[in-house]
């Protein structure tokens, strides 16, 4: 049976993405994103699912940096899941939010709910956890007046009550999850793909005027649509960056080799991180 690792414990949005996308697989949770990626890299898991980007809070930098610098794995699919953040409390909580002393969740989840927390629990201390599932677990094991931010799956898994639904600041809240695996055919997803995408890792030569413009021009004159371009430090010194570029089309034998040859002629290094289907999930 195919083994799929995910950012756990139970009740995380990553687990929700796995349950929605896959059938008939064995799943295992990991405490951190690096642990999940390492498990696939070291052949403990056939595939791993990790968060990449949230519509409100942006890129999960740890995923990008670890994938680039520590354990380079192919991206075989992207899963986009709508995110609904709820305020979770123990079943016997009085209901008075002014009594809540601490609110626990992943840093991204807390940031997504800033306005609700500011208006209703301005004096509560924020406790950052490795995942929303872990936050729910903390509340379930406590007798104090504390709360967690998480999803309905976490509430069910840990016997919590949803005090307030949909407390995120913006309604159009989605998260992109990457499916990482050495074998792109390791597992099938139970939905039709919305589109296909190719992600490239590009490093520029020593900085000179117009370098980034020339990189973008290689895509522009070929009329290749870029859905995202993001820079991250190379960790080799100040001012040294790599770029992650998402192109809204699958890899082909004409345009992409042309782009790669043109960029390499400029002194860039180009690595294909994956060409993969994108799945939009409805929960």
TrEMBL record:
Under which EC number(s) is this enzyme classified?
4.2.1.51
Q: Which reaction does it catalyse?
A: prephenate + H(+) = 3-phenylpyruvate + CO2 + H2O
MF-aspect GO terms:
prephenate dehydratase activity
All copies of the Prephenate dehydratase domain together span 3-182
UniProtKB keywords: Amino-acid biosynthesis, Aromatic amino acid biosynthesis, Lyase, Phenylalanine biosynthesis
Q: Which GO terms of type biological process are on file?
A: L-phenylalanine biosynthetic process
Which Pfam family, just one, is annotated for this protein? PDT
Record InterPro entries: ACT-like_dom_sf (IPR045865), ACT_dom (IPR002912), Chor_mutase/pphenate_deHydtase (IPR008242), Preph_deHydtase (IPR001086), Preph_deHydtase_CS (IPR018528)
Q: Pathway, according to UniProt?
A: Amino-acid biosynthesis; L-phenylalanine biosynthesis; phenylpyruvate from prephenate: step 1/1
Listed under GO cellular component are:
cytoplasm
Q: Which residues form the signal peptide?
A: none
* Annotated ACT domain residues: 200-277
Gene3D superfamilies named in the record: 3.30.70.260, Periplasmic binding protein-like II
The positions annotated as site (Essential for prephenate dehydratase activity) read 175
Q: Mind telling me which NCBIfam families this protein's record contains?
A: PRK11898.1
Spell out the protein name for this chain: Prephenate dehydratase
The species this protein belongs to is Lentibacillus amyloliquefaciens
């Amino acid at each position: 049976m195919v083994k799929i690792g995910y950012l756990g414990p139970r009740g995380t949005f990553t687990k929700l993405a796995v349950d929605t996308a896959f059938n008939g697989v064995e799943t295992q949770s990991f405490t951190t994103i690096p642990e999940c990626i390492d498990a696939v890299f070291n052949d403990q898991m056939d595939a791993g699912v990790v968060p990449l980007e949230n519509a409100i809070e942006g890129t999960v930098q740890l995923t990008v940096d670890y994938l680039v610098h520590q354990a380079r794995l192919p991206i075989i699919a992207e899963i986009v899941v709508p995110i609904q953040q709820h305020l979770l409390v123990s079943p016997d909580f009085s209901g008075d939010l002014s009594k809540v002393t601490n609110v626990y969740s992943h840093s991204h989840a807390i940031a997504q709910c800033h306005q609700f927390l500011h208006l209703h629990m301005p004096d509560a201390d924020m406790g950052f956890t490795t995942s929303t599932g872990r936050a729910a677990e903390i509340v379930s094991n406590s007798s104090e007046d504390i709360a967690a931010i998480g999803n309905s799956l976490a509430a069910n898994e840990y016997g919590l009550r949803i005090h307030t639904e949909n407390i995120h600041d913006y309604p159009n809240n989605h998260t992109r999850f990457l499916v990482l695996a050495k074998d792109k055919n390791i597992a099938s997803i139970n939905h039709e793909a919305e589109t296909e995408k190719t992600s490239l890792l590009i490093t520029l030569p020593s900085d000179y005027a117009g370098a980034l413009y020339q990189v973008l021009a290689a895509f522009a004159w070929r009329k290749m649509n870029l859905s995202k371009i993001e820079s991250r430090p190379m960790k080799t010194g100040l001012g040294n960056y790599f770029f992650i570029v998402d192109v809204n089309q699958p890899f082909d034998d004409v345009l992409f080799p042309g782009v790669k040859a043109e960029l390499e002629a400029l002194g860039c290094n180009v690595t294909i991180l994956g060409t993969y289907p994108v799945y939009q999930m409805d929960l």
